[in-house]
Amino acid sequence: MKMSIPITNILGSPVTSLRLEEQVSLILTWAKKHQSKVVYLANSHMLMEAYWNLHFARVLEKADIVSPDGMPLVWMLRLMGFRNQNRVAGMDVFVNLCRLASVTDISVFFLGSTPEVLGSMKRKLEKEFPQLSIAGIEPLPFYPLTTEEDEALIEKINCSGAGLIFVCLGCPKQENWIAHHKDKINGVMIGVGAVFAVYAGLQKRAPRLVREFGFEWLYRLMQEPRRLWRRYGKTIPPFMYLAIKQLLTPYKRKLQKVKRDLTQENIILDLATLDTKKYSKIGEILVKQNIITKDFLEEALLEQKKHPELKIGEILVQNNFVSSSQLNKVLSNQNIKLGQIMLEKSLVSPVKLKQTLKYQTDNGGLIGEIMVNKNIITAESLSYLLVEQYWRKNFGSSFIKN
What InterPro entries does the entry give (predicted)? Predict the structure, then answer.
């Protein structure tokens, strides 16, 4: 079964028209297979660089994913018909991939930035994601590597077994570097810009409301006026003009096919792999969702030792550590079935689901695979559903955003 990734043309550049959770799912499928893939996180500055520079435009065209990182790109996609498009911000991609990689046995390599930033980032990663397998952390010099140095770096990354490679060199240097190493490095390379420094706590990220209203550029400008005022002054006005011009010009949206089609084998995430038990205990889930503190959980566990006949959830409710409604919501997510999510998203009708469940009872097999084989849903949709089911069971009803 072959599928294509939806792509929309914005100012002459391809932008992937998939939601954050869908892109994360897709990246994970590639990473598990150690496929050499390219992911760029685009904003108005990047698209203007491509508009003015033919070579850089070719770099974006050859990418596997060009994510709408900036809110202006998200607004354009919504106006062009993708009304459910959300922002695929670099920090959200970074955090979600690290979180999921830590429970799916995917190792990660961090490339670029400075030793100071990398050291601070590593300490925070080890604290937040103790199960994350860090395959390597490597700063890069500002000068170009020699052929021998570059070959040694490629060998080091490939020998590390990393499925995800985060590259932090700044735009357009990191995109050019990644493009040059496509099909040489066996993993998904993702250009993340300033994410390393922000995650490490050395730079501040704009508050959520500022980001959602599209003024993150202004927040960054106030932090680094000398470095950024020329860039923003040069790119924002022409981007606004060209964007408005494109939106006012009659067009027919086309969903282009990527050169390398996805196969069912590549797109399906194994449910057995995703459905780990690392965060399966209800108390740990409540802590992960910031509903209770670790101290409250420890108190409840001590109380349970005295009264083993009580469940941990009952103790938490009795001691007013958590409300019964909060506990019931978490429990409902923990026990959620794949078919239930399909019904919520109107992917199948109740009648079709009932027929499929009867077929499963008579013939065995996994419900998702049966639906794919019977062409009820696509393999791509199943991949997204498996990630959502895992996420809701272990971390709540939606992907976490920092």
Answer: T2SS_E_N_sf, WecG_TagA_CpsF
In the 8-state DSSP scheme, what is residue 109?
E
Please, are residues 280 and 395 in contact by the beta-carbon 8 Å criterion? no
Measured in whole angstroms, the distance separating CA 124 from the mean position of its chain's CA atoms is 19
Phi then psi for 168, rounded to 5 degrees? -125, 95
Neighbours of 216 (CB within 10 A): 20
**Considering only CA atoms, which of 43, 4, 90 is closest in space to residue 378?**
4
Pairing of the two strands 37-42 and 65-68: parallel
In whole numbers, what is the pLDDT of the chain averaged over residues? 81
Model confidence, pTM: 0.65
Six token digits for residue 126: 């080890």
**CA 40, CA 346: separation in Å to the nearest integer?**
31
d(CA 333, CA 344): 13
DSSP 256: P
pLDDT of residue 37: 97
**Residue ranges in 129-224 assigned as alpha helix (H):** 147-160, 173-180, 195-200, 208-212, 216-223
SS3 8: strand
Phi, psi of 191 (to 5 degrees): -85, 120
Task: Report the relative pairing of strands 164-168 and 108-112 from DSSP bridges.
Answer: parallel
Per-residue buried b or exposed e for 160-181, using 16+ beta carbons within 10 Å of the residue's own CB: bebbbbbbbbebbebbebbbeb
DSSP of 349-371: -HHHHHHHHHHHHHH-S-HHHHH
* Residue 177 pLDDT grade (very low, low, confident, very high; cuts 50, 70, 90): very high
H helices of 53-89, in order, are 54-61, 71-79
pLDDT, tens digit, 9 for 90 and up, residues 79-119: 998 988 999 999 999 999 999 999 888 999 999 999 999 99
